[in-house]
Amino acid sequence: MDIKHFQDRFNVHFENESLLKQAFMHTSYVNEHRDQSLEDNERLEFLGDAVLELAVSQYLFRQYPHMSEGELTKFRANIVCEPSLEQFNRDLSLSQYLLLGKGEEASGGRERPAILADAFEAMMGAIYLDQGFETALSFLETNIFPNVEPGAFSHVMDYKTKLQESMQKEGKNVSYQIIDELGPDHNREFVAACYVNDQKIGEGRGRSKKDAEQEAANEALQKRQS
Amino acid sequence: MDIKHFQDRFNVHFENESLLKQAFMHTSYVNEHRDQSLEDNERLEFLGDAVLELAVSQYLFRQYPHMSEGELTKFRANIVCEPSLEQFNRDLSLSQYLLLGKGEEASGGRERPAILADAFEAMMGAIYLDQGFETALSFLETNIFPNVEPGAFSHVMDYKTKLQESMQKEGKNVSYQIIDELGPDHNREFVAACYVNDQKIGEGRGRSKKDAEQEAANEALQKRQS
Protein backbone atom coordinates (compact mmCIF):
# COMPACT_ATOMS: atom_id res chain seq x y z
CA MET A 1 0.00 0.00 0.00
CA ASP A 2 1.06 3.60 -0.53
CA ILE A 3 1.62 4.69 3.06
CA LYS A 4 2.76 8.16 2.09
CA HIS A 5 -0.33 8.73 -0.06
CA PHE A 6 -2.62 7.83 2.82
CA GLN A 7 -0.80 9.99 5.37
CA ASP A 8 -0.65 13.06 3.15
CA ARG A 9 -4.24 12.71 2.07
CA PHE A 10 -5.67 12.49 5.58
CA ASN A 11 -2.94 14.51 7.27
CA VAL A 12 -2.31 11.75 9.81
CA HIS A 13 1.38 11.01 10.19
CA PHE A 14 2.33 7.75 11.89
CA GLU A 15 5.23 7.22 14.27
CA ASN A 16 5.08 3.52 13.46
CA GLU A 17 4.09 3.26 9.80
CA SER A 18 3.97 -0.53 9.91
CA LEU A 19 0.80 -0.25 12.00
CA LEU A 20 -0.91 1.58 9.16
CA LYS A 21 0.21 -1.08 6.70
CA GLN A 22 -1.02 -3.79 9.05
CA ALA A 23 -4.47 -2.18 9.20
CA PHE A 24 -4.95 -2.93 5.51
CA MET A 25 -3.34 -6.36 5.59
CA HIS A 26 -5.92 -9.07 5.09
CA THR A 27 -5.19 -12.50 6.49
CA SER A 28 -5.08 -13.92 2.94
CA TYR A 29 -2.04 -11.71 2.22
CA VAL A 30 -0.26 -12.83 5.38
CA ASN A 31 -0.89 -16.48 4.50
CA GLU A 32 0.80 -15.98 1.14
CA HIS A 33 3.85 -14.32 2.69
CA ARG A 34 4.79 -16.75 5.43
CA ASP A 35 8.49 -16.01 4.86
CA GLN A 36 7.97 -12.48 6.16
CA SER A 37 7.05 -11.83 9.77
CA LEU A 38 3.67 -10.22 9.10
CA GLU A 39 0.54 -9.89 11.19
CA ASP A 40 -2.93 -9.47 9.72
CA ASN A 41 -5.37 -6.72 10.66
CA GLU A 42 -7.71 -8.74 12.90
CA ARG A 43 -6.40 -7.64 16.28
CA LEU A 44 -6.39 -4.01 15.15
CA GLU A 45 -9.99 -4.53 14.04
CA PHE A 46 -10.86 -5.63 17.60
CA LEU A 47 -9.35 -2.42 18.95
CA GLY A 48 -10.80 -0.18 16.23
CA ASP A 49 -14.30 -1.45 16.89
CA ALA A 50 -14.05 -0.10 20.45
CA VAL A 51 -12.57 3.19 19.21
CA LEU A 52 -15.57 3.61 16.91
CA GLU A 53 -18.04 2.71 19.66
CA LEU A 54 -16.68 5.42 21.95
CA ALA A 55 -16.25 8.07 19.25
CA VAL A 56 -19.77 7.51 17.93
CA SER A 57 -21.19 7.36 21.47
CA GLN A 58 -19.80 10.72 22.48
CA TYR A 59 -20.87 12.22 19.14
CA LEU A 60 -24.47 11.05 19.61
CA PHE A 61 -24.43 11.97 23.30
CA ARG A 62 -23.57 15.58 22.50
CA GLN A 63 -25.59 15.82 19.29
CA TYR A 64 -28.84 14.50 20.77
CA PRO A 65 -29.12 15.78 24.33
CA HIS A 66 -32.72 14.61 24.73
CA MET A 67 -32.37 11.14 23.32
CA SER A 68 -32.88 8.34 25.85
CA GLU A 69 -30.27 5.69 26.60
CA GLY A 70 -32.29 3.11 24.66
CA GLU A 71 -32.57 5.31 21.57
CA LEU A 72 -28.88 6.20 21.71
CA THR A 73 -27.96 2.51 21.92
CA LYS A 74 -30.08 1.66 18.86
CA PHE A 75 -28.70 4.62 16.94
CA ARG A 76 -25.11 3.62 17.76
CA ALA A 77 -25.73 0.03 16.68
CA ASN A 78 -26.91 1.36 13.33
CA ILE A 79 -23.74 3.37 12.79
CA VAL A 80 -21.20 0.85 14.08
CA CYS A 81 -22.35 -2.07 11.92
CA GLU A 82 -21.01 -3.76 8.80
CA PRO A 83 -23.15 -1.96 6.18
CA SER A 84 -22.26 1.48 7.56
CA LEU A 85 -18.57 0.71 8.01
CA GLU A 86 -18.41 -0.68 4.48
CA GLN A 87 -19.96 2.57 3.26
CA PHE A 88 -17.46 4.68 5.23
CA ASN A 89 -14.67 2.69 3.59
CA ARG A 90 -16.17 3.34 0.15
CA ASP A 91 -16.76 7.05 0.90
CA LEU A 92 -13.02 7.43 1.57
CA SER A 93 -11.92 5.06 -1.26
CA LEU A 94 -9.85 3.03 1.15
CA SER A 95 -9.99 -0.23 -0.80
CA GLN A 96 -7.02 0.97 -2.87
CA TYR A 97 -4.82 0.43 0.21
CA LEU A 98 -5.93 -3.16 0.85
CA LEU A 99 -3.32 -5.92 0.76
CA LEU A 100 -4.98 -9.17 -0.33
CA GLY A 101 -3.80 -12.64 -1.21
CA LYS A 102 -3.98 -13.58 -4.89
CA GLY A 103 -6.94 -15.91 -4.43
CA GLU A 104 -8.91 -13.37 -2.45
CA GLU A 105 -8.11 -10.69 -5.01
CA ALA A 106 -9.20 -12.89 -7.93
CA SER A 107 -12.49 -13.75 -6.27
CA GLY A 108 -13.42 -10.10 -5.74
CA GLY A 109 -12.21 -9.63 -2.16
CA ARG A 110 -11.50 -5.95 -2.78
CA GLU A 111 -15.27 -5.40 -3.03
CA ARG A 112 -16.34 -7.73 -0.23
CA PRO A 113 -18.38 -5.87 2.43
CA ALA A 114 -16.84 -7.71 5.41
CA ILE A 115 -13.28 -7.03 4.22
CA LEU A 116 -14.03 -3.34 3.66
CA ALA A 117 -15.79 -2.94 7.02
CA ASP A 118 -13.01 -4.79 8.88
CA ALA A 119 -10.29 -2.68 7.26
CA PHE A 120 -12.09 0.50 8.28
CA GLU A 121 -12.18 -0.69 11.90
CA ALA A 122 -8.54 -1.80 11.78
CA MET A 123 -7.52 1.59 10.39
CA MET A 124 -9.23 3.30 13.33
CA GLY A 125 -7.40 0.89 15.66
CA ALA A 126 -4.06 1.77 14.09
CA ILE A 127 -4.70 5.53 14.33
CA TYR A 128 -5.69 5.15 17.98
CA LEU A 129 -2.70 3.00 18.88
CA ASP A 130 -0.19 5.28 17.16
CA GLN A 131 -1.74 8.71 17.75
CA GLY A 132 -4.19 8.37 20.64
CA PHE A 133 -7.93 8.74 21.03
CA GLU A 134 -8.14 12.47 20.28
CA THR A 135 -6.56 12.03 16.84
CA ALA A 136 -8.82 9.07 16.08
CA LEU A 137 -11.82 11.15 17.10
CA SER A 138 -10.79 14.12 15.00
CA PHE A 139 -10.23 11.83 11.99
CA LEU A 140 -13.87 10.76 12.30
CA GLU A 141 -15.08 14.31 12.92
CA THR A 142 -13.36 15.46 9.76
CA ASN A 143 -14.05 12.54 7.44
CA ILE A 144 -17.07 10.58 8.66
CA PHE A 145 -19.45 12.42 11.00
CA PRO A 146 -20.29 15.17 8.45
CA ASN A 147 -21.75 12.38 6.27
CA VAL A 148 -23.73 10.93 9.15
CA GLU A 149 -25.48 14.27 9.53
CA PRO A 150 -28.14 15.45 8.94
CA GLY A 151 -30.36 12.54 9.59
CA ALA A 152 -28.69 9.91 7.42
CA PHE A 153 -29.60 7.38 10.09
CA SER A 154 -32.66 9.03 11.59
CA HIS A 155 -34.99 6.69 9.69
CA VAL A 156 -33.85 4.09 12.17
CA MET A 157 -35.88 5.68 14.89
CA ASP A 158 -38.84 7.02 12.97
CA TYR A 159 -41.41 4.67 14.45
CA LYS A 160 -44.37 6.85 13.43
CA THR A 161 -43.52 6.47 9.74
CA LYS A 162 -42.92 2.75 10.14
CA LEU A 163 -46.29 2.23 11.85
CA GLN A 164 -48.10 4.46 9.35
CA GLU A 165 -46.71 2.48 6.39
CA SER A 166 -47.50 -0.85 7.96
CA MET A 167 -51.09 0.15 8.84
CA GLN A 168 -51.75 1.70 5.43
CA LYS A 169 -51.12 -1.69 3.84
CA GLU A 170 -53.88 -3.11 6.01
CA GLY A 171 -56.19 -0.18 5.20
CA LYS A 172 -56.13 1.01 8.81
CA ASN A 173 -56.01 4.52 10.19
CA VAL A 174 -53.44 5.77 12.77
CA SER A 175 -53.90 8.74 15.09
CA TYR A 176 -52.23 10.22 18.18
CA GLN A 177 -53.38 12.17 21.21
CA ILE A 178 -51.49 13.80 24.09
CA ILE A 179 -53.26 12.32 27.12
CA ASP A 180 -51.17 13.77 29.96
CA GLU A 181 -48.54 16.37 30.80
CA LEU A 182 -46.27 15.79 33.78
CA GLY A 183 -43.67 17.72 35.73
CA PRO A 184 -42.98 21.43 36.09
CA ASP A 185 -42.90 23.81 33.10
CA HIS A 186 -39.11 23.79 32.79
CA ASN A 187 -38.94 19.99 32.85
CA ARG A 188 -42.14 18.97 31.11
CA GLU A 189 -42.90 15.41 30.11
CA PHE A 190 -45.68 14.45 27.73
CA VAL A 191 -47.65 11.23 27.50
CA ALA A 192 -49.00 10.29 24.09
CA ALA A 193 -51.43 7.55 23.12
CA CYS A 194 -51.41 5.89 19.72
CA TYR A 195 -54.69 4.68 18.19
CA VAL A 196 -55.32 2.35 15.25
CA ASN A 197 -58.89 2.66 14.00
CA ASP A 198 -59.74 4.46 17.25
CA GLN A 199 -58.46 1.59 19.41
CA LYS A 200 -55.55 2.49 21.72
CA ILE A 201 -52.58 0.22 21.04
CA GLY A 202 -49.63 2.13 22.44
CA GLU A 203 -48.54 4.73 24.97
CA GLY A 204 -45.28 6.65 25.26
CA ARG A 205 -43.53 9.42 27.16
CA GLY A 206 -41.16 12.09 25.97
CA ARG A 207 -39.70 15.52 26.61
CA SER A 208 -41.56 16.81 23.55
CA LYS A 209 -44.97 15.91 22.13
CA LYS A 210 -43.23 14.46 19.07
CA ASP A 211 -40.96 12.26 21.17
CA ALA A 212 -43.91 10.98 23.17
CA GLU A 213 -45.74 10.10 19.95
CA GLN A 214 -42.65 8.33 18.62
CA GLU A 215 -42.47 6.24 21.77
CA ALA A 216 -46.18 5.43 21.57
CA ALA A 217 -45.68 4.28 17.94
CA ASN A 218 -42.68 2.22 19.05
CA GLU A 219 -44.77 0.44 21.68
CA ALA A 220 -47.51 -0.19 19.13
CA LEU A 221 -44.96 -1.71 16.71
CA GLN A 222 -43.49 -3.93 19.41
CA LYS A 223 -46.91 -5.21 20.44
CA ARG A 224 -47.70 -6.08 16.86
CA GLN A 225 -44.42 -8.01 16.50
CA SER A 226 -44.90 -10.04 19.67
CA MET B 1 -23.64 12.21 47.74
CA ASP B 2 -20.38 13.52 49.15
CA ILE B 3 -18.75 14.90 46.01
CA LYS B 4 -15.69 16.16 47.86
CA HIS B 5 -15.10 12.77 49.48
CA PHE B 6 -15.17 11.02 46.09
CA GLN B 7 -12.84 13.51 44.43
CA ASP B 8 -10.28 13.52 47.21
CA ARG B 9 -10.34 9.76 47.53
CA PHE B 10 -9.73 9.05 43.84
CA ASN B 11 -7.82 12.25 43.13
CA VAL B 12 -10.14 13.10 40.23
CA HIS B 13 -11.29 16.72 40.38
CA PHE B 14 -14.28 17.67 38.26
CA GLU B 15 -14.76 20.92 36.38
CA ASN B 16 -18.50 20.25 36.40
CA GLU B 17 -19.28 18.53 39.68
CA SER B 18 -22.93 18.07 38.80
CA LEU B 19 -21.86 15.42 36.26
CA LEU B 20 -20.35 13.35 39.05
CA LYS B 21 -23.53 13.71 41.10
CA GLN B 22 -25.60 12.71 38.07
CA ALA B 23 -23.54 9.54 37.63
CA PHE B 24 -24.87 8.26 40.95
CA MET B 25 -28.41 9.50 40.48
CA HIS B 26 -30.80 6.62 39.95
CA THR B 27 -34.00 7.29 38.04
CA SER B 28 -36.03 6.54 41.21
CA TYR B 29 -34.41 9.56 42.89
CA VAL B 30 -35.17 11.84 39.94
CA ASN B 31 -38.81 10.71 39.95
CA GLU B 32 -39.14 11.72 43.59
CA HIS B 33 -37.64 15.17 43.00
CA ARG B 34 -39.67 16.40 40.05
CA ASP B 35 -39.54 19.98 41.40
CA GLN B 36 -35.78 20.07 40.73
CA SER B 37 -34.42 19.92 37.21
CA LEU B 38 -32.50 16.66 37.58
CA GLU B 39 -31.36 14.06 35.06
CA ASP B 40 -30.77 10.44 35.95
CA ASN B 41 -27.58 8.51 35.15
CA GLU B 42 -28.84 6.49 32.18
CA ARG B 43 -27.34 8.54 29.36
CA LEU B 44 -24.00 8.68 31.19
CA GLU B 45 -24.22 4.91 31.50
CA PHE B 46 -24.53 4.66 27.69
CA LEU B 47 -21.37 6.72 27.31
CA GLY B 48 -19.49 4.98 30.11
CA ASP B 49 -20.14 1.58 28.58
CA ALA B 50 -18.21 2.67 25.48
CA VAL B 51 -15.41 4.19 27.60
CA LEU B 52 -15.02 0.84 29.36
CA GLU B 53 -15.08 -1.09 26.09
CA LEU B 54 -12.20 0.94 24.69
CA ALA B 55 -10.17 1.09 27.89
CA VAL B 56 -10.47 -2.67 28.42
CA SER B 57 -9.78 -3.35 24.73
CA GLN B 58 -6.51 -1.45 24.70
CA TYR B 59 -5.51 -3.03 28.01
CA LEU B 60 -6.09 -6.56 26.68
CA PHE B 61 -4.52 -5.69 23.31
CA ARG B 62 -1.26 -4.66 24.98
CA GLN B 63 -1.34 -7.25 27.76
CA TYR B 64 -1.93 -10.26 25.49
CA PRO B 65 0.00 -9.68 22.26
CA HIS B 66 -0.61 -13.21 21.04
CA MET B 67 -4.30 -13.50 21.74
CA SER B 68 -6.48 -13.74 18.64
CA GLU B 69 -9.29 -11.31 17.86
CA GLY B 70 -11.88 -13.93 18.84
CA GLU B 71 -10.24 -14.62 22.18
CA LEU B 72 -9.86 -10.90 22.90
CA THR B 73 -13.53 -10.33 22.13
CA LYS B 74 -14.62 -13.10 24.50
CA PHE B 75 -12.27 -11.85 27.20
CA ARG B 76 -13.58 -8.28 26.85
CA ALA B 77 -17.19 -9.47 27.07
CA ASN B 78 -16.33 -11.15 30.36
CA ILE B 79 -14.90 -7.98 31.84
CA VAL B 80 -17.47 -5.50 30.54
CA CYS B 81 -20.55 -7.33 31.82
CA GLU B 82 -22.93 -6.82 34.73
CA PRO B 83 -21.36 -9.25 37.25
CA SER B 84 -17.88 -7.76 36.76
CA LEU B 85 -19.05 -4.16 36.83
CA GLU B 86 -21.06 -4.86 39.97
CA GLN B 87 -17.89 -6.30 41.51
CA PHE B 88 -15.82 -3.25 40.49
CA ASN B 89 -18.44 -1.07 42.18
CA ARG B 90 -18.21 -3.16 45.37
CA ASP B 91 -14.39 -3.21 45.28
CA LEU B 92 -14.40 0.59 45.38
CA SER B 93 -17.34 0.86 47.82
CA LEU B 94 -19.19 3.17 45.47
CA SER B 95 -22.69 2.33 46.67
CA GLN B 96 -22.28 4.92 49.44
CA TYR B 97 -22.57 7.63 46.77
CA LEU B 98 -25.80 6.33 45.21
CA LEU B 99 -28.85 8.59 45.22
CA LEU B 100 -31.98 6.43 45.30
CA GLY B 101 -35.69 7.08 45.68
CA LYS B 102 -37.23 6.08 49.00
CA GLY B 103 -39.05 3.07 47.59
CA GLU B 104 -35.93 1.78 45.82
CA GLU B 105 -33.89 2.31 48.99
CA ALA B 106 -36.42 0.46 51.14
CA SER B 107 -36.52 -2.51 48.78
CA GLY B 108 -32.74 -2.96 48.83
CA GLY B 109 -31.79 -1.02 45.69
CA ARG B 110 -28.41 -0.10 47.15
CA GLU B 111 -27.41 -3.77 46.85
CA ARG B 112 -29.05 -4.48 43.48
CA PRO B 113 -26.48 -5.73 40.93
CA ALA B 114 -27.96 -3.83 37.96
CA ILE B 115 -27.99 -0.53 39.88
CA LEU B 116 -24.38 -1.02 41.01
CA ALA B 117 -23.17 -2.00 37.54
CA ASP B 118 -25.00 0.89 35.87
CA ALA B 119 -23.60 3.41 38.34
CA PHE B 120 -20.07 2.17 37.68
CA GLU B 121 -20.57 2.70 33.93
CA ALA B 122 -22.17 6.11 34.48
CA MET B 123 -19.25 7.17 36.69
CA MET B 124 -16.83 6.26 33.87
CA GLY B 125 -19.00 8.28 31.46
CA ALA B 126 -18.87 11.30 33.78
CA ILE B 127 -15.08 11.10 34.19
CA TYR B 128 -14.66 10.82 30.41
CA LEU B 129 -17.00 13.72 29.65
CA ASP B 130 -15.42 16.04 32.21
CA GLN B 131 -11.76 14.97 32.07
CA GLY B 132 -11.24 13.15 28.76
CA PHE B 133 -10.30 9.60 27.81
CA GLU B 134 -6.78 9.61 29.25
CA THR B 135 -8.04 10.43 32.75
CA ALA B 136 -10.77 7.78 32.48
CA LEU B 137 -8.14 5.27 31.40
CA SER B 138 -5.75 6.14 34.19
CA PHE B 139 -8.61 5.86 36.73
CA LEU B 140 -9.11 2.26 35.56
CA GLU B 141 -5.36 1.56 35.45
CA THR B 142 -5.05 2.71 39.07
CA ASN B 143 -8.23 1.28 40.58
CA ILE B 144 -9.49 -1.61 38.45
CA PHE B 145 -6.95 -3.26 36.16
CA PRO B 146 -4.63 -4.30 39.01
CA ASN B 147 -7.53 -6.44 40.31
CA VAL B 148 -8.15 -7.94 36.88
CA GLU B 149 -4.58 -9.20 36.89
CA PRO B 150 -3.17 -11.78 37.24
CA GLY B 151 -5.64 -14.06 35.63
CA ALA B 152 -8.80 -13.13 37.54
CA PHE B 153 -10.66 -13.75 34.30
CA SER B 154 -8.40 -16.27 32.69
CA HIS B 155 -10.70 -19.13 33.71
CA VAL B 156 -12.94 -17.84 30.98
CA MET B 157 -10.57 -19.09 28.36
CA ASP B 158 -9.17 -22.14 30.02
CA TYR B 159 -10.75 -24.65 27.67
CA LYS B 160 -8.39 -27.45 28.65
CA THR B 161 -9.56 -27.38 32.26
CA LYS B 162 -13.19 -27.17 31.18
CA LEU B 163 -12.84 -30.16 28.87
CA GLN B 164 -10.88 -32.14 31.45
CA GLU B 165 -13.56 -31.61 34.10
CA SER B 166 -16.37 -32.46 31.76
CA MET B 167 -14.67 -35.68 30.51
CA GLN B 168 -13.70 -36.81 34.00
CA LYS B 169 -17.38 -36.92 34.94
CA GLU B 170 -17.91 -39.33 32.07
CA GLY B 171 -14.87 -41.38 33.10
CA LYS B 172 -13.05 -40.48 29.88
CA ASN B 173 -9.41 -39.67 29.32
CA VAL B 174 -8.13 -36.52 27.53
CA SER B 175 -4.75 -36.15 25.85
CA TYR B 176 -2.97 -33.75 23.47
CA GLN B 177 -0.35 -34.02 20.77
CA ILE B 178 1.50 -31.44 18.66
CA ILE B 179 0.90 -32.72 15.13
CA ASP B 180 2.48 -29.94 13.08
CA GLU B 181 4.76 -26.90 13.25
CA LEU B 182 4.42 -24.17 10.66
CA GLY B 183 6.25 -21.01 9.65
CA PRO B 184 9.81 -19.83 10.21
CA ASP B 185 11.51 -20.08 13.60
CA HIS B 186 10.88 -16.48 14.54
CA ASN B 187 7.19 -16.75 13.72
CA ARG B 188 6.34 -20.30 14.62
CA GLU B 189 2.83 -21.68 14.66
CA PHE B 190 1.87 -24.96 16.28
CA VAL B 191 -0.97 -27.32 15.48
CA ALA B 192 -2.31 -29.41 18.34
CA ALA B 193 -4.77 -32.29 18.30
CA CYS B 194 -7.03 -33.15 21.21
CA TYR B 195 -7.98 -36.79 21.88
CA VAL B 196 -10.68 -38.25 24.09
CA ASN B 197 -10.08 -41.94 24.78
CA ASP B 198 -7.58 -41.92 21.89
CA GLN B 199 -10.15 -40.59 19.42
CA LYS B 200 -9.30 -37.20 17.88
CA ILE B 201 -12.11 -34.71 18.52
CA GLY B 202 -10.45 -31.32 18.10
CA GLU B 203 -7.63 -29.45 16.40
CA GLY B 204 -6.22 -26.00 17.07
CA ARG B 205 -3.47 -23.59 16.13
CA GLY B 206 -1.47 -21.19 18.24
CA ARG B 207 1.78 -19.26 18.62
CA SER B 208 2.73 -21.51 21.49
CA LYS B 209 2.10 -25.23 22.09
CA LYS B 210 -0.11 -24.30 25.03
CA ASP B 211 -2.22 -21.93 22.92
CA ALA B 212 -2.61 -24.56 20.22
CA GLU B 213 -3.79 -27.09 22.80
CA GLN B 214 -6.24 -24.56 24.25
CA GLU B 215 -7.69 -24.02 20.80
CA ALA B 216 -7.95 -27.74 20.20
CA ALA B 217 -9.79 -28.12 23.51
CA ASN B 218 -12.06 -25.23 22.55
CA GLU B 219 -12.99 -26.96 19.27
CA ALA B 220 -13.64 -30.18 21.13
CA LEU B 221 -15.96 -28.38 23.57
CA GLN B 222 -17.85 -26.69 20.77
CA LYS B 223 -18.37 -29.97 18.93
CA ARG B 224 -19.76 -31.53 22.06
CA GLN B 225 -22.19 -28.65 22.58
CA SER B 226 -23.54 -28.72 19.03
TrEMBL record, chains A, B:
The keyword tRNA processing applies. Residues 202-226 are annotated as: Disordered. It is found in: Cytoplasm. Residues 202-213 have a biased composition (Basic and acidic residues). One of its GO terms (molecular function) is ribonuclease III activity. It catalyses: Endonucleolytic cleavage to 5'-phosphomonoester. PROSITE patterns: DS_RBD, RNASE_3_1, RNASE_3_2. Mg(2+) binds at residues 45, 118, 121. Its cofactor is Mg(2+). Keywords: Cytoplasm, Endonuclease, Hydrolase, Magnesium, Metal-binding, mRNA processing, Nuclease, RNA-binding, rRNA processing, rRNA-binding, tRNA processing. It is an enzyme of class 3 (hydrolase). InterPro entries: dsRBD_dom, RNase_III, RNase_III_dom, RNase_III_sf. Residues 3-132 form the RNase III domain. Digests double-stranded RNA. Involved in the processing of primary rRNA transcript to yield the immediate precursors to the large and small rRNAs (23S and 16S). Processes some mRNAs, and tRNAs when they are encoded in the rRNA operon. Processes pre-crRNA and tracrRNA of type II CRISPR loci if present in the organism. Belongs to the ribonuclease III family. This is Ribonuclease 3. The lineage of its organism: Bacteria, Bacillati, Bacillota, Bacilli, Bacillales. The gene is rnc.
